[in-house]
Amino acid sequence: MPHRDLHSKITNYNDLLEGNRKWVEETLQEDPEYFHRLAKGQEPPVLWIGCSDSRVPANQVTGTLPGEVFVHRNIANVVSHADLNLLSVMDYAVNVLKVKYIIVAGHYKCGGIAAALTNKQFGVIDNWLRHIKDVYRLHKAEVDAIEDPKAKEDRMVELNVVEGVLNVCKTTIIQNAWSSGQELSVHGWVIDIHTGYVKDQHVSVSNNDQMDKVYQMDRF
User: pLDDT tens, 76-125?
Assistant: First the structure.
């Protein structure tokens, strides 16, 4: 699809329908069989757990096509063991689609992280942001030692990703996959929206031996 000015605005609902029409026409001109192949099913090797922020879409960030990345997104890419939506996505991705890579992807300039570092009330979302405040509690000494507000916020973005990777690995879904010998690795990324580049947080985990024993679960 042709480049669209980042600052151009969608002025009405019909702009979306027109955009879809142009996308379909241009895609078919380039590849007449594109949608025929897409309709056959999906076998994505990647599960993306990212932020809902409109600036960090999974396919564009990774240079992949529809059908190559299975996606779950929420405010501030939180991984919570109480989130049935996320757990359902993970279960389907791991046990049905057999993905090989799970990526927890945060990004700098994240509004959810910034909000969690304040004492302000924003509404229902405050309950969701408690998860991020818990990340702060776990790393309080390190975060409080950072004086620059931007650097502090950036580090919280990174730490939220680190804890997200660990939380993914602690689930019975991942534990059982590893116990059965399934090839699966979990990775943590932060996207720098100023440059577009990904910063690997070097917290990749690919088997139970890399987890503390208290989190290692035996299968029934």
Answer: 999 999 999 999 999 999 999 999 999 999 999 999 999 999 999 999 99
Angle between helix 172-179 and 84-95 (nearest 10): 20
Where does CATH 3.40.1050.10 sit in the chain? 42-215
Active-site residue set: 51, 53, 55, 107, 110
Q: How far apart are CA 44 and CA 53, in angstroms?
A: 22
User: What global pTM score does this model have?
Assistant: 0.91
**SS3 (DSSP) at 69:** strand
Residue 127: Cβ-neighbour burial (10 angstroms; 0-12, 13-18, 19+): exposed
3-state secondary structure of 114: helix
How far apart, in whole angstroms, are the C-alpha atoms of residue 158 and residue 142? 12
Stretches in the chain below the pLDDT threshold 50: 1-2
Second CATH level (architecture) for the domain 42-215: 3-Layer(aba) Sandwich (3.40)
